[in-house]
Amino acid sequence: MKNTSQPAVELATRYKAEIGAITELVEPSIHVFAHLLELQKSLNVAGDMLETGVFRAGTASLLAAGLQGNERLFLIDPTQNVDVNRQTIERFARTQPEQLVFHVLDSMAVNKWRESMLSPAVPLVRFAHIDGEHSYDAVYSDLDLSRRYLTGGGVIVLDDIFNMNSACCTHALFDYLRDQPLLQLVAMGFRKAYLCESRHVASYRRFFVRLPELLAQTANLHVRLCFNSWAHERSYVTFDACEPNAPHYQIIGKRFARLEEALAALETLP
User: Fold this and answer.
1) pTM of the predicted protein model
2) CA torsion angle for 70, 36, 266, 159 (degrees, to 10)?
3) What residue ranges define each of the domains in the chain, with the CATH number in brackets?
């Protein structure tokens, strides 16, 4: 784990130092994003990235740092300052100009007219971050846009889950999952939901199940991972901050100090 984790740790450390003043990401999410980018690299998941709701390009800068070769980052936001955001991203991520594709447009319009608006530079998305307009219709549309261009092994991350100030994000998420059964929720933590195609759940589940150990070892961050269903194959996990000496795993109210204990409990339950 040390060798594969080191590039992600270095990226997260540099990101906090250089972009920390403008990022909207909390520290655990910074590390999760950095490790997910490294995980995709180790799994040979290639493709573009997409973000709706760019704001000051804080999160976009972290994503762009994971771009390889001719991969691109599509940035959709009707109010973004392209010149400033391009400068921010290129300075941190050292991207080439052609790797950043800006759309100063409403993401719902992009989804509605996607065949013409995204042509000829059609994306093939391995990492989508949704943090745009928080209405029900906009979130549902952004999920649909991301799924339509999602490549094999790609992940979609939706912001502001269970934020009572933006309750429609959560409402739209579960409605979309109901309507698209081949897309599955893998994990939720620090107000972000992580989704992928059902056929790729195993790889991302293995990552999130090990997250408490990973964050403790590489960032001195402590989270409790909760298994929320006895039906492990179709369930998602959740994670949130906990004290260093507190149990780091939970199954429906029962807490465990070690992952192996939690997994053993899952196996013995009906």
Assistant:
1) 0.95
2) -100
3) 2-221 (3.40.50.150), 222-270 (no CATH)
pLDDT tens, position by position, 65-100: 999 999 999 999 999 999 999 999 999 999 999 999
How buried is residue 267: exposed, middle or buried, by Cβ count under 10 Å (0-12/13-18/19+)?
exposed
Q: Give 140-196 as a DSSP string.
A: HHHHHHHHHTEEEEEEEEEE-TT-GGGHHHHHHHHHHHHH-TTEEEEEEETTEEEEE
Q: Which residue has the tokens 């989704």?
A: 195
Residue 115 has, within 13 A of its CA and on its CB side, a CA count of 0
- Radius of gyration of the chain measured on its C-alpha atoms: 18
Pair 1, 30: CB distance under 8 Å? no
For 179-216, what is each residue's pLDDT tens digit? 999 999 999 999 999 999 999 999 999 999 999 999 99
Quick check: 115 and 145 in contact, CB under 8 A?
A: no
